[in-house]
Specification:
Layout (H helix, E strand, L loop, with lengths): L4 E3 L2 E3 L10 H35 L20 H134 L4 H22 L1
Antiparallel strand pairs: 1-2
């Protein structure tokens, strides 16, 4: 898996195919390395060939023939040192001419690409912060709107409750007034009936008093008769 570039809380994956150098730069560097290795192999082969020729032209130093011509390993040969130095300078020249400019360009390109990725990540981070702030503002506005709607609903419920109570009270008052009117009408009707009955009894009683001589027993009987008729008339009216 590729590495992640993390900056300002935003992770971004580097471009595909490039850990240290781009794909094209790596291909060119592989070619340069092959050229250097081939050159080094040729140089070493030439050195071995020269050394073999020198050894072939000398006398056989084995089997007791070794003498002053036997080479000392610690002896420094000037021609071999010069040859090795020339090979080193040649490799250094090849590296400086072919490889180093491409390596430097690849490093510069990679640095620019990383800077671009960092700038892009920072821009994305700022955009995310801006969107988060907008979301939080919208969320706060929605919460305030919900609270306002709940408050309005509560007020409407209280108003409806008061209206229902007022209508119930008005209906109860109207019913009570109607009952009172009915009672008053019934009482008036009963009083009228009682008054008429009383008047009739009084007239009848007066007629009897005029026609008959009233003794105490007769008087009590007339009173009882009048009261009985009054009660009977009241019962009939009710």
């Amino acid at each position: 898996m590729g590495r992640l570039i993390v900056r300002s809380g935003v992770a971004k994956r580097p471009p595909e195919g490039g850990a240290l150098f781009p794909r094209e730069a790596r291909a060119e560097m592989r070619g340069i390395v092959w050229v250097m290795l081939s050159t080094l192999a040729l140089v070493l082969a030439g050195s071995n060939y020269a050394y073999a020729e020198e050894a072939h032209g000398s006398h056989d130093l084995g089997h007791g023939n070794a003498g002053d011509k036997l080479e000392d390993p610690s002896e420094i040969k000037a021609d071999l040192a010069i040859y090795t130095f020339a090979v080193f300078m040649l490799l250094l020249l090849i590296l400086g001419t072919l490889a180093w400019p491409k390596i430097s360009a690849a490093l510069t390109e990679r640095e620019k690409r990383i800077e671009g990725n960092i700038a892009s990540a920072e821009a994305m981070n700022e955009e995310a912060k801006r969107l988060l702030a907008q979301y939080e503002a919208k969320l706060a506005s929605a919460a305030a709107e919900v609270r306002a709607m709940l408050e309005e609903a509560r007020k409407d419920a209280e108003g409806t409750k008061e209206q229902i109570i007022a209508e119930a009270r008005a209906g109860a008052q109207a019913e009570r007034d109607r009952a009172v009117r009915d009672i008053d009408l019934a009482a008036d009707h009963a009083m009228k009936g009682i008054a008429e009955t009383s008047a009739n009894l009084a007239v009848e009683l007066a007629g009897k008093v005029i026609r008959e001589t009233i003794n105490p027993a007769k008087q009590q009987e007339l009173v009882r008769t009048a009261l009985a008729k009054m009660h009977a008339s009241s019962a009939a009216n009710n």
